[in-house]
Amino acid sequence: MIDQADALRSLVRDKSHLDLPRRTRAYAVAITSGKGGVGKTSLAVNLALTLASTKGRVRLVDADYGLSNAEVLLGVNPDHTLEDVVCGRIDAADAWVDCPGGLRLISSGSGLDSMTNIDGVASAELMASALDSAENGDIIVIDTAPGIDDSVISILSMADEVLVVTTPEPTSITDCYATIKVLTQAKPDCRISLVTNNCSSPSQAGSVARGLDAICIRFLGRSFQRYEYVPTDPSVGRAILTRRPFALHAAHTPAASWLKRLAIKIVERERQWQASRRAESLLEA
Ligand SMILES: Nc1ncnc2c1ncn2[C@@H]1O[C@H](COP(=O)(O)OP(=O)(O)OP(=O)(O)O)[C@@H](O)[C@H]1O
Ligand SMILES: [Mg+2]
Q1: Most-buried pick from 87, 100, 126, 247 (CB within 10 A)?
Q2: DSSP at 191
Q3: pLDDT higher at 133 or 14
Q4: CA-CA distance, 86 to 132, in Å (whole number)?
């Protein structure tokens, strides 16, 4: 019995998979949420397309294992998925598919048995292979499943910044706090931005952010430095129904305009990140 408890404790303590080294210099932005259905995939797909039109060389990893929706929103039908990588049929480098807007996507497939019950270690290894198959200078947007499972947290730990999405609803805010709590325990220096989606006004987003920030400072001793706003916009739902992303086909709608502002900030953060990586490698040389 004691042996079993010791083994369990060491399993909990062993977080080495959260620190898997990255071999390529691509900037990874993960999009996550505690609660499901808050708009992660819509934001991930359309942010990735907006980034692609701002900067070029953008990839999207759909890491909602076995419940991939990004291809539905993009109107593509991938021949290969991360399931082929898990089963050893192909390398991750061969799983990327070309999408509209110059975006490249790796899907994780839909309803595939081998993509369910992926644990934290397997998830980290799979994500490492996807990230390493990108090229230096790429931006990689990662859409995740909702929740605080090990498989999600290990993906978030590998990202260079995490956008945690909530809506103004108290249940969503509660689950958002849970995500921030678990993530900061796993990776204390994680760079987190709050995105309040489906908002009626910037002031509503501001009040959600201030409330959540106060709770994070009080109970976690840290603040998330940035917060973003995406308004409620019927073009988001229309884009899903027609499989025509609003970033490409309704680029002047309110949600698209706010995503452009977010994309510009991410491109600037990526530029700074690349500059500091270059400086580090010069020092190491
Ligand atoms: N800003 C918005 N305005 C209006 N509707 C929105 C907005 N954002 C998301 N939605 C709607 O919310 C629903 C869920 O969106 P989406 O599938 O992107 O969420 P999700 O967080 O990825 O869900 P899951 O957790 O199941 O993966 C969709 O019907 C979408 O149209
Ligand atoms: Mg989704």
Answers
A1: 247
A2: -
A3: 133
A4: 15
What structural domains does the chain harbor? Answer: 27-284 (3.40.50.300)
* pLDDT tens readout for residues 260-283: 999 999 999 999 999 998 888 888
Say if ligand 1 is within 6 A of residue 256 CB: no
Q: Kindly report the three-state secondary structure assignment for every residue of 147-176.
A: CCCHHHHHHHHHCCEEEEEECCCHHHHHHH
pTM equals 0.93
Nearest-CA residue for atom 12 of ligand 1: 39
What does the DSSP 8-state code read for residue 112? -
- The 10s digit of each residue's pLDDT in 211-227 is 999 999 999 998 877 89
| Nearest Cα residue to atom 15 of ligand 1 | 39
Cα-atom radius of gyration of the chain, to the nearest Å? Answer: 18
β-sheet bridge partners, residue 144: 63
Q: Among 31, 33, 38, which is best to mutate for testing ligand 1, by the most ligand atoms less than 8 A from CB? A: 38
Token code pair at residue 245 = 């992303």
* Long-range Cβ pairs for the range 231-240 (8 Å, 24+): 231/198, 231/199, 231/200, 231/201, 231/255, 231/258, 232/198, 232/199, 232/200, 236/39, 236/42, 239/42, 239/46, 239/73, 240/42, 240/72, 240/73
